[in-house]
Design a protein that fits this description.
The protein is an alpha+beta fold. The chain is built from 9 helices and 7 strands. The protein has a 5-stranded mixed β-sheet with strand order 2-4-5-7-6, covered by helices on one side.
């Protein structure tokens, strides 16, 4: 019915769009769009998704999103098509070119087709707009995190300088305590030193995470030597918390190629997480943490396990992301830093947790620097 008036209809539609929005849209692009739209409407007997020109619709929505087209323009365009096609149909009826029965049959189908196209275009426009908005928000969030990281690094540097002075005088004070006063006073100083070391560790975590520092060289160490060193470092806190530590190595003369200080930091972080996980258990309940080393033909492993409550389900999927924590006083950087450190060993991080048992496992390939897998309980 409308095909004989195709060119006048298209020309009039393009003209009215350009009149309403002068200079906004490219004339050639409008003509191409109008040509496709006309056939999509006129061929109402072909299901829209099966029409050869249907792929034009997703392309059209992407174009308008990229052009920041106001949704009202798309709605106005649809109204223009309705008005033009209605006017042409009425003219055909007046001139006797179509019967009233044809109008009653065809026009509802044409309007239904316009509704269908309008729905598909508006849905696609909304989806693309949301994706674009989400991308912009993610970029903004990333930039803010980078800025926060720079501020945190600057603040950490400023705090660390006086802490270095305090550390020196604390050691000097300890050496000057008279032997007859050694008991209680040295115990108090030991507590101060432990808390001081915690502050210093958090500051170093911020600094290590916020910059790409020169990497520590790899060296070969014995697994027993590495684990014993870790046990000695965490023993005071374990004793004060009433936590039993089980340690051992299954196998003899197991050697590892690691960045020793970095690997110590990973394991201490993991043990500290386990301590945090078990320390709030019932007083009568046993608090047990184990650190075990073992090997198979291709890998060596160090596993830290605790009998705490396990990782909350709502943080498991984002456990190693920065600033994600289930602790009321945590920064959420500990496991993110562990991930960064083990990736320097070509590592992969994962975890295994259920109520009553959570494990962290460090896995290293025997052939050179290994792949590392870290499993975690508490953040």
């Amino acid at each position: 019915m409308l095909l004989s008036q195709k060119n006048p209809i298209i020309s009039q539609w393009v003209g009215e769009v350009e009149e309403r929005y002068p200079g906004r849209y490219d004339s050639a692009e409008l003509l191409r769009t109008a040509e496709s739209y006309f056939h999509l409407v006129n061929d109402w007997h072909i299901p829209l998704e099966l029409h050869p020109l249907f792929p034009m619709i997703p392309a059209l929505t992407r174009y308008h999103v990229s052009m920041s087209t106001p949704p009202t323009h798309l709605l106005e365009s649809s109204h223009l098509w309705r008005a033009l096609l209605q006017a042409v149909s009425a003219e055909f009826f007046t001139e006797g070119l179509v019967s009233g029965d044809e109008l009653v049959t065809d026009m509802p189908r044409i309007h239904a087709r316009i509704d269908e196209i309008q729905y598909v275009i508006s849905s696609g426009f909304w989806e693309h707009s949301q994706r674009q908005l989400d991308s912009a928000m993610n970029q903004m969030h990333k930039e803010r995190l980078q800025m926060a990281g720079k501020l945190a690094a600057s603040m950490a540097h400023e705090i660390r300088n006086p802490l270095t002075t305090i550390s020196g005088f604390l050691k000097l004070l300890t050496s000057k305590i008279p032997a007859e006063s050694a008991g209680a006073v040295k115990n108090y100083v030991s507590i101060i030193q432990e808390e001081f070391n915690t502050i210093q560790m958090h500051i170093n975590n911020f600094l290590n995470f916020s910059k790409n520092k020169e990497q520590e060289p790899f060296r070969e160490v014995g697994m027993e030597e590495l684990i014993l060193g870790i046990v000695n470092l965490v023993a005071p806190r374990l004793s004060s918390e009433g936590i039993e530590l089980l340690s051992g190595v299954k196998g003899t003369n197991i050697r590892l190629s690691v960045q020793q200080v970095g690997m110590q930091q990973v394991l201490i972080n993991l043990i500290n997480n386990s301590i945090d996980a078990v320390q709030h258990m019932e007083p009568s309940a046993p608090k047990i943490i184990s650190i075990q080393g073992y090997e198979d033909p291709d890998h060596t492993y160090i596993r830290v396990t605790d009998n705490g409550p396990g990782i909350p389900p709502d943080v498991r999927d984002k456990l190693f992301s920065p600033f994600v924590t289930s602790k009321t006083t945590g920064t959420g950087l500990g496991l993110a830093i562990c991930k960064q450190l083990v990736e320097q060993h070509a590592g992969v991080l994962s975890f295994d947790s259920r109520p009553g048992e959570t494990s962290f496992t460090v896995q290293l390939r025997k052939s050179g620097v290994g792949a590392v897998s870290v499993n975690s309980a508490s953040v």
